[in-house]
Automatic annotation (TrEMBL):
The keyword Cell inner membrane does not apply. Keywords: DNA-binding, Transcription, Transcription regulation. The keyword DNA repair does not apply. Pfam families: TetR_C_23 (PF17931), TetR_N (PF00440). InterPro entries: DNA-bd_HTH_TetR-type_CS, Homeodomain-like_sf, HTH-type_TetR-like_transc_reg, HTH_TetR, Tet_transcr_reg_TetR-rel_C_sf, TetR_C_23. Gene3D superfamilies: Tetracycline Repressor, domain 2. Residues 7-67 form the HTH tetR-type domain. Residues 30-49 bind DNA. This is Transcriptional regulator, TetR family.
Amino acid sequence: MAAKKSEQTRERVQRAAFESLRQNGFDGTTMRGIADAAGIAPGGIYYYFRSKDDIVSALYVHVSERYRDQGQRVLDGERSFAARLRAVYLLGFDLVDDYHDFAGSFLGTAITPGGASNPFGGRAREAKTAAVSLFDDVVTGSDLRVSAELRAELPELLWGAFMAGMLFWAYDRSPGQRRTRELVDRVVPLIAELLAVSRLPFLKKQLREAIGVVQLITGADDA
């Protein structure tokens, strides 16, 4: 019974924290405000989150888990690689739409070396793993055919492209982030076309170099 009550309190605190970020942004969110909204003592909030950075990290994990689960539904019944990739990219932006107003603050927190929400490692590794797994499913169930060498690294490549798109989205001030969605519609066919010709012999050297660059970037936290 005590364990169930503790879990219910944790969920209530997390909901209050995420709602505060959505309503007030990163700078306007306070630990005391979250505690008040969740109905716990001010000091009790630190049992669940040590800082606002930890809240952002928890949000990142939460969104990534939803991304993984809902991504399966948008992939069902579709074989075209380009259509699958487009659907998953757009879903990712839809899931974070409510938090666009504080996206700049979030990115500032995320890129801090060793920060809780750094997407390249640390405590956010769980969220990255969930997202990369979804991109693996994008490829697995599609009509795309690439070399085994590229196939092994492709989910990371697609995730990296999505994270670059997320940076564009964060600073996109067009209504409903329309420019970001237009970017997806233009970039996805290019990715599909490049992958379609990636097995040509004269591209092998460039392909290996591209894979090496991806491994260098995504392995930055391993040292």
